[in-house]
Write a structure and sequence with these properties.
The chain is of the alpha/beta class. The protein has two domains: about 160 residues, Spore Coat Polysaccharide Biosynthesis Protein SpsA, Chain A (Alpha-Beta Complex); about 90 residues, no CATH class. About 45% of the residues lie in helices and about 25% in strands. Helix 2 links the parallel strand 2 and strand 3. Helix 5 runs parallel beside helix 7. It is globular and about 80 Å long.
């Protein structure tokens, strides 16, 4: 049974993950894929499944969410990422509340799979995302990186979980870090006047590892849990290293341009080779 529901996927170069995600969305009336600049088969895979594919790029995740919502023609919309999977039980629960029309937003608990293991600790177990909305209740999104929805009414927390196949390997981790750490660094740099020091960078990493591995008991997820805590600590340090970069006056780019100009000057003055 299909209902008055559109699935919305914001994707870039998700050819490896998209097809399996689409296989779990047969309960949706429509599927919209907002392609933010893919160079792989993402668009072709989406078209093969009959999705509506729209190309749109923006630095702000909130703007991407809002653009995707503007393309929805059904009464309900469901945001889902290409690396997330809906179970039949979750689909039935979503459809039941849509049929009963007893809520205006639904929150889902994601079960995270990192390094091939389902995590039950490290604060991954508290990963709640509000993703299903009646279109009239969704007013917009706020936040450049960790965006959050603005909506009217209360959100109902669903009983069944959604699977999140994230951090599949270190290479995947680093690629994602490169995308979001600079955005978080820019937001931090704009919000603080504090100069970044090496002790501060190290302290941020150590505290992030402590929180993930011990405070939230990530060590109970075994070696994978400890490695993930370490990766998150590294990410935190990378954010603050990039804040340090942004604080440099003159900027790093200006310094490299100065070096380039110096080399060009040398060739103009001394470059006549015999």
């Amino acid at each position: 049974m299909k209902s008055n529901l559109s699935a919305v996927i914001i994707a870039k170069n998700e050819g490896q993950m998209l097809e399996a995600c689409l296989d779990t969305l047969s309960f949706c009336q429509n599927i919209i894929v907002l392609d933010t600049g893919s160079t792989d088969r993402t668009g072709k895979i989406a078209e093969h499944y009959g999705c509506k594919v729209v190309s749109f790029s923006h630095e702000s995740f909130a703007k991407l969410r809002e653009k995707a919502a503007s393309l929805v023609e059904t009464d309900w919309l469901f945001y889902i990422d290409a690396d997330e999977r809906v179970t039949p039980a979750l689909a039935k629960e979503i459809l039941l509340h849509i049929e009963q029309d007893d809520v205006r937003a639904m929150t889902i608990n994601r079960e995270n799979v990192c390094y091939g293991q389902r995590f039950a600790y490290g604060n991954w177990q508290n990963d709640l995302v509000t993703r299903v909305f009646h279109k009239t209740a969704l007013l917009g999104w706020q936040g450049e990186i960790h965006e959050s929805p603005i909506f009217t009414g209360e959100a109902l927390r669903l009983q069944h979980k959604m699977l999140h196949l994230t951090h599949r390997n270190t290479r995947d981790n680093l690629r994602k870090s490169a995308d979001w750490t600079i955005k978080e660094a820019k937001a931090l740099e704009a919000a603080t006047v504090r100069k970044i020091s090496l002790p501060l960078i190290l302290r941020k990493g150590v505290m992030e590892f402590y929180r993930r591995a011990f405070k939230h008991q990530g060590y109970k997820d075994g070696m994978a849990g400890l490695i993930e805590a370490l990766v998150q600590a590294m990410n935190r340090m990378i954010v603050y290293i990039q804040v340090w970069e942004l604080q440099q006056k003159p900027s790093l780019q200006a310094r490299y341009e100065k070096e380039e100009q110096a080399i060009k000057k040398l060739w103009r003055e001394e470059g006549k080779l015999r």
